[in-house]
């Protein structure tokens, strides 16, 4: 699918900032269109990377040669973290420049004790496309198979491109950068952890499946989080009266990435995988909505000790919402049982089942919203449920 440039929902602050997001989510394309007159330092360019690695002070020379008021973009700054010390000094010297620093991991920079500019630059997170960004181009069935990563969506062969994307992360980001020495074990881990998508994470079970120590699984999970390939969803615990589980749920950041790593065979039920993919697509949209909306909101899930569960809870300045995702066209009261329990615990919550049916309705105070309609209507800085 060939796309012209699409307006993204993420907004660029007027001050210096970090822009973090996984590879392929469109950071560079977005910035090229948002700040077309910026001075660029692209660390993916071999000659630029070599020059900056040999002498990070060269960045000061480039900045001082630019006009006052110029925006300076340092692309993929994690490749040479010492440049952050130079930027920090330039900001401290009150140089009249705005700095935009992109990267594929904030967490890995913090792990290394890297200077993140002493809090002088805000952080912006970049996500895969939202359905509303694609507008009429959005195709729910396609999104459920190959995800919403811009480089995949715009490819004429998205399925093949997704396999290449997954291969790139294993062999370029993990192997070449030497995040782990045992690529074979890490590949087995990716397959094993894919069975945890949308589930409460049990490190011992994953370790047993991979035939590696639990500590190795913890390290591998840290690599996925460092690369922004995956995240964990905590339990919503605000003012609760019930005993809740304590373990987080696991997700790859994009539904297509999950499909790429999830093994498929005759013992796998397609409807089981399809249900997890739909939930993953909704979760990644909610996560982007939280990050792109100005007022602070956070994403959780809810599960009691007796295993009553709600797939997603959004809590923040503008309200409290709870969502259950069902890959079914049938409206069944049993599918809303978790939401009814949540509603009794939190009467102010707006509760909705996102399902594959065609009709938007309200039953017993709970909304039933078609998945396609919900995803297309989800707009940052507007009420969560407005259809």
Could you name the key traits of this structure?
Rossmann fold; 5-stranded parallel beta sheet; Arc Repressor Mutant, subunit A; alpha/beta; 16 helices; 387 residues; 18% strand; 40% helix
Outline the structure in words.
By secondary structure, this protein is of the alpha/beta class. Helix content is 40%, strand content 18%. The chain has 16 helices and 13 strands. The chain has helices at residues 27-34, 46-54, 58-65, 83-92, 107-111, 131-134, 140-146, 150-153, 158-176, 183-194, 203-210, 214-226, 255-261, 270-292, 337-345, 371-377; strands at residues 17-20, 39-42, 71-75, 98-103, 122-125, 230-233, 249-252, 297-303, 309-316, 319-326, 350-355, 361-363, 366-370. The chain has a 6-stranded mixed β-sheet, sandwiched between helices. Strands 2-3-4-1-5 form a 5-stranded parallel β-sheet, with helices on both faces. The chain starts with 16 loop residues before the first strand and ends in a 10-residue tail after the last helix.
């Amino acid at each position: 699918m060939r796309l012209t440039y699409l307006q993204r929902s993420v907004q660029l602050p007027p001050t210096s900032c970090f822009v973090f997001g996984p590879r392929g989510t469109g950071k560079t394309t977005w910035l090229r269109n948002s700040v077309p007159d910026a001075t660029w330092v692209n660390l993916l360019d071999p000659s630029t990377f070599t020059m900056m690695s040999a002498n990070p002070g060269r960045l000061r020379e480039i900045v001082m040669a630019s006009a006052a008021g110029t925006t300076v973009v340092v692309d993929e700054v994690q490749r040479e973290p010492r440049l952050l010390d130079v930027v920090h000094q330039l900001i401290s010297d009150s140089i009249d420049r705005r700095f935009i620093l992109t990267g594929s991991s904030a967490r890995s920079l913090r792990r290394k004790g890297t200077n993140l500019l002493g809090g002088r630059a805000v952080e912006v997170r970049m996500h895969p496309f939202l359905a509303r960004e694609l507008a009429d181009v959005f195709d729910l069935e396609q999104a459920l198979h190959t995800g919403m990563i811009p480089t995949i969506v715009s490819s004429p062969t998205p399925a093949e491109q997704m396999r290449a994307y997954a291969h790139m992360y294993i062999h370029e980001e993990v192997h070449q950068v030497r995040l782990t020495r045992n690529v074979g074990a890490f590949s087995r881990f990716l397959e094993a952890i894919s069975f945890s998508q949308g589930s409460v994470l049990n490190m011992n079970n994953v370790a047993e499946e991979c035939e590696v120590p639990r500590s190795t699984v913890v390290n591998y999970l840290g690599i996925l989080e460092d690369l922004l390939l995956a995240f964990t969803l905590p339990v919503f615990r605000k003012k609760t009266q019930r005993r809740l589980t304590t373990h987080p749920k696991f997700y790859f950041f994009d539904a297509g990435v999950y499909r790429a790593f999830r093994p498929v065979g005759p013992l796998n039920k397609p409807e089981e995988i399809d249900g997890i993919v739909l939930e993953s697509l909704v979760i990644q949209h909610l996560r982007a909505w939280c990050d792109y909306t100005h007022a602070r909101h956070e994403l959780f899930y809810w599960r009691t000790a007796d295993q009553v569960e709600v797939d997603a809870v959004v809590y923040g300045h503008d309200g409290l919402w709870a969502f259950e995702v069902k890959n079914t066209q049938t409206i069944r009261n049993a599918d809303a049982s978790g939401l009814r329990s949540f509603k009794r615990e939190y009467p102010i919550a707006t509760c909705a089942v996102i399902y594959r049916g065609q009709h938007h309705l309200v039953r017993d105070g709970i909304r039933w919203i078609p998945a396609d309609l919900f995803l297309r209507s989800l707009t940052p800085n507007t009420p969560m449920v407005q259809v």
